[in-house]
Write a structure and sequence with these properties.
three-stranded antiparallel β-sheet; Muramoyl-pentapeptide Carboxypeptidase, domain 1; 2 domains; about 45% helix; mainly alpha
Length: about 425
C-alpha cells in the first residue's frame, strides 16, 4: 500500500503527509520523495489542468471508466498548488527516530489506543479471529495513521490526484491512483464529496491509497459498500487486517523484540540479510535486557536504528510485513511498540543518543558524494540512507578504526571532510 511513502534516514525519518503537524495525537506518516525522473509542468495553472483533464478522459475511458463517472468526478476539479508544494518538500523535513517515537508512542496515544481497543474490542476480536492479525497491531496502525479516526484528512482526493498527475513528477503513479479513485466512485463505495483524504490521496481511518483500496478493502458489515471514510471504522480496520494477511502476517510472531548487544559485538552482523534464530543470537550474547533469551519465533536480524548508541532489536518476518504498509523503519517500530504498549508492555529499556542531530538533506547528499569519492560507493546520490549507504559507511568506519555501526552521524561526515 505505501511503498510510495516512507524511509528511514539512518535514525532520521523523512516526514510528510501530516507528520508532526499538530500535537501529540495526530497522524504520523513518514514519507519520502520518490527517486524518479519526470517532466514537470513548467507553468502549472487551472487552465492547464483543465486541458490535461480533457486529454486524460480518453485514456480513462479506455481503462473502463464510464464517461458519466469521469465527467461527474472531474467537474469543478481545481489545481491545488499546496499539494504540489507538499510533494516537493517532503525530503527536506527529517526527525530522529527518537523524536518520532516520542510522538508516535506518546502517553496520550497509548491511552487513546487502549480506549479505542476497549470500545471496539468485540469487532477487533472478530477481525483477529478471521485474519490472524493481532488486534493491537490493527489498533496501532489506526492510531498512527489517523489518531484513531480523528485525523482522516479533508482534502478532495480527485482534485489532489489530478493535480499531482498533471504536475508530472510522478505522473504514472498518480494517474493510476486517480483511475482507481474513479473506480471507487463508479462502484458506488462513496461519493466524490465524501472521497476525502490526505494531500497525496491516502484515505480513511487507516489511510489506504486508492490502489490498495481496490486490492484489499473489505465490506465487513455487509452493507454493500467498502466504507473506510465514515465515522464507523469497522470496514477500515478489517481492510487493514486483510492487507497485512495478504502480505504474509504470521499470527503470534512479534514484529521485533528489544535486545542488548554485548561489548565487542561485531556490528557488521547487524544487517537485514544476516538472520539467525534468537537462540543462535543468544549464543553471541544478543539477549533481552537483563539476559533473557528471546523465544525462537523465527529467523531474525539485528536492527540498530539509532546506531551503536541506541536501542537494538531482533526483528522478524512481521517487521517486513509492516514495511509493506510504510517502508520507514521508524514507522514500523512505532506501530510495533505502540501495539506492545497498548497491550500493556513497558517502554524500551535502552536510551537513545539524543545528543546527536540528524543530517540535513544537503549533508546527506554530501555524505554520499564523499563516501563514493573515497572509494566507498553508495551507488546512488539521493539523500536516502538505505542499505547501500549504510554498508558504505560501515566500510569507511572500519578503515577509520571506529565502530562500524553504519550510522550516518555528523562525526562520520566530518571524518570524510578531513580526508
Amino acid at each position: 500500500m505505501r511503498r510510495l511513502f516512507g524511509t528511514i534516514i539512518g535514525g532520521a525519518v523523512a516526514l510528510g503527509s501530516g507528520g508532526f503537524a499538530a500535537g501529540p495525537d495526530v497522524s504520523l506518516r513518514p514519507a519520502e520523495r520518490a527517486n524518479v525522473v519526470a517532466t514537470i509542468v513548467a507553468n502549472p495553472s487551472q487552465s492547464g489542468l483543465e486541458s490535461w483533464i480533457t486529454a486524460f478522459r480518453a485514456r480513462s475511458l479506455a481503462q473502463g471508466i464510464t464517461g458519466q463517472t469521469y465527467d461527474s468526478a472531474m467537474k469543478g476539479v481545481r489545481y491545488d498548488a499546496g499539494v504540489i508544494k507538499r510533494d516537493r518538500n517532503q525530503s527536506e523535513f527529517t526527525k530522529t527516530i527518537w523524536d518520532y517515537l516520542d510522538t508516535a508512542v506518546s502517553d496520550l496515544r497509548i491511552r487513546n489506543g487502549r480506549s479505542a481497543l476497549g470500545e471496539w474490542d468485540s469487532t477487533l476480536n472478530a477481525i483477529e479471529a478471521k485474519y490472524g492479525v493481532e488486534k493491537e497491531i490493527v489498533t496501532a496502525i489506526w492510531g498512527l495513521e489517523s489518531a484513531y479516526g480523528t485525523f482522516r484528512g479533508s482534502g478532495l482526493v480527485i482534485s489532489s490526484l489530478a493535480t499531482l498527475a498533471y504536475d508530472g513528477r510522478r505522473a504514472a503513479f498518480f494517474e493510476k491512483e486517480l483511475l482507481d479513485a474513479l473506480r471507487i466512485l463508479q462502484d458506488g463505495d462513496t461519493t466524490a464529496g465524501q472521497l476525502t483524504g490526505s494531500w497525496a490521496g491516502a484515505m480513511g481511518h487507516t489511510q489506504f491509497m486508492p490502489s490498495s483500496f481496490q486490492a484489499h478493502a473489505v465490506d465487513h458489515n455487509g452493507d454493500g459498500k467498502r466504507n473506510i471514510w465514515g465515522d464507523d471504522p469497522v470496514d477500515a480496520l478489517t481492510s487493514t487486517a486483510a492487507y497485512l494477511k495478504h502480505f504474509g502476517w504470521k499470527e503470534g510472531q512479534p514484529w521485533g523484540v528489544e535486545v542488548e548487544v554485548p561489548e565487542g559485538f561485531d556490528f557488521t552482523l547487524a544487517q537485514r540479510d544476516f538472520r539467525k534464530l534468537p537462540s543462535e543470537w543468544a549464543a553471541l550474547d544478543v539477549t533481552q535486557p537483563g539476559g533473557g533469551v528471546v523465544k525462537d519465533h523465527g529467523l531474525a536480524s539485528v536492527l540498530l536504528p539509532g546506531g551503536a548508541g541506541g536501542a537494538a532489536f531482533l526483528i522478524f518476518d512481521n517487521f517486513e510485513v509492516l514495511e509493506s504498509y510504510n517502508t520507514a523503519d521508524a514507522y514500523v517500530i512505532g506501530v510495533g511498540h505502540l501495539a506492545d504498549r497498548i497491550r500493556g508492555e513497558g517502554a524500551f529499556q535502552h536510551s537513545w543518543p539524543r545528543h546527536l542531530r540528524v543530517l540535513s538533506y544537503d549533508e546527506r547528499i554530501e555524505l554520499q558524494k564523499r563516501l563514493t569519492a573515497a572509494g566507498f560507493d553508495t551507488e546512488k546520490i539521493d539523500a536516502k540512507i538505505g542499505p547501500l549507504t549504510i554498508g558504505a559507511i560501515r566500510r569507511f568506519q572500519q578503515t577509520q578504526g571506529v565502530l562500524p555501526d553504519g550510522y550516518p552521524s555528523l562525526q562520520v561526515l566530518e571524518r570524510l571532510r578531513a580526508l
